[in-house]
Amino acid sequence: MSGKLASDYPSWKKLQQLYDAEHSKIVLKDLFAQDPQRFSKFSREYNSTSGPDVTMLVDLSKNLITEPVLETLLELAREAKVEEYRDKMFAGEHINTSEDRAVLHVALRNFNDFKIAESGADEVSAVLDHMKEFTEAVRSGAWKGYTGKTINTIVNIGIGGSDLGPVMVTEALKPYAKRDLAAHFVSNIDGTHIAETLRLCDPETTLFIIASKTFTTQETITNAETARGWFLASAKDKAHVAKHFVALSTNTKAVTGFGIHESNMFQFWDWVGGRYSLWSAIGLSIALVIGYENFEQLLKGAHGMDKHFKETPLEDNLPVLMAVIGLWYNDFYGSQTLALLPYDQYLHKFADYFQQGDMESNGKFVTKNGQRVNYQTGPIIWGASGTNGQHSFYQLVHQGTKLIPTDFIAPTTSHNPIEHSKHHRILLSNFFAQPEALAFGKTEEEVKRELGPNASEALVKSKVFQKRKVSRHPRAYSPLFVSVGALIALYEHKIFVQGVIWGINSFDQMGVELGKVLAKNILAQLEKPEDVKGHDSSTTGLIHYYQKNRKE
Ligand SMILES: O=P(O)(O)OC[C@H]1O[C@H](O)[C@H](O)[C@@H](O)[C@@H]1O
């Protein structure tokens, strides 16, 4: 990010030469055969050095990398000044240049360890205290609804970063959930979402959490107004709103304007990006579901990974290693996507969450200096939990024409060791087998040997697996809540490192603005056909069709 394009660095050119010379010859089976130490050379164990114990093994050996490739990738990270920019982030410098903001999600889980000068960083513990007090009041039943009943349902209304993190983490940490407190999440402006949720709620026992950094997001404010109207239809008196609505936001004026008292507002700061905000007040629904103590453990798990990222040499730095290997596929092998494949049902929203985390951060085509890049930036993130994905899209991953980097993730211990852990052993046998199949494939000779001499050539060919598919496995160990914190932080920092190397600003999201502006304009024209002006013929035709065919 030193004003250069990534492709200007000498190491980038060296990587291109390495790719040109080796990519058509590289076969994982041969690499493993040539080097019995390959697994230990290319895997790293993570043991947290602060807070609760988290251990994790990240096996990078089944990637299409050699020692010279990895060395050169790390040279690239050095030339791009990854360490310098990492230190700037932790110091609170305004590395989000387009918005002139610091990027300090690490301050939200810091517990006074790193010194951070930015204003607001010293207020974090007061907000955590507020969250703790409130969480305990609701969970203990001390907080009552307007008719004196205990709260038994919470509804988080938010979208994007104010929804996906709480959704993903409350699912991930379900084993710790208070089972008699139902949690719902409403994000979509489609009235179906709020309507179906309200059907499950009782106004006397429901708490609405309006989560919006800006408190101006159309979906969230509209859904919140609908929820307030629904509530007041029963409660009648506006004074009761205070018992049933709280806000998570940076915008006090808009929150109080909505009718939520400042004492029921949980603050955060403009240096918390929406997609990095689950650690802030935005995590209130998480704390309500799993309890404040467990929420704090989640933060501490992430802090351990922050410390690792900040203090570990690049050669052993997990987010850096995952970032540069991802870049190797993205920019040299031409891979377009990264599949996140957690073999853990509790992590079934992991890919959805990092779709925003990664794609909104690194989906940019100009550098911080406004230069157009001449290489690929952020990958398309997708995935599903194993083994469901195996019965759906793995065929293409194994035998399709695309090279798809895959991150396999699994916990060593199950929260549900039912049937003497039979399920977990079957799950993990798939977790081990799929990357093995991807890495080593099956040759034509092997297929022929299996099928015998009478098999047709077409059948033989259809059963061949190429030997150059790739995978890497971060494996999180239990206990889950701290591991989940560390796992999320691992990916957050991976995204950061890639953004630095590509020279882009990973912390703004200018690309989502245009659609919002156009929708606002169209909304004002939807009533009458003669109002529909200023569009291309396709947009005009679509709106006219809707106007003609709608049934109110
Ligand atoms: O929290 P809010 O201000 O309501 O924003 C919610 C979301 O809005 C937009 O879609 C932004 O691109 C996201 O980054 C953000 O998470």
TrEMBL record:
Keyword Isomerase set for record: yes
Q: Which residues cross the membrane?
A: none
Please name the GO terms of the biological process aspect recorded for this protein, alphabetically. Answer: gluconeogenesis; glucose 6-phosphate metabolic process; glycolytic process
What Pfam families does its record include? PGI
* Alphabetically ordered keywords of this record: Gluconeogenesis, Glycolysis, Isomerase
Q: What is its EC number?
A: 5.3.1.9
Protein name from the UniProt record: Glucose-6-phosphate isomerase
This chain's source organism reads: Hebeloma cylindrosporum
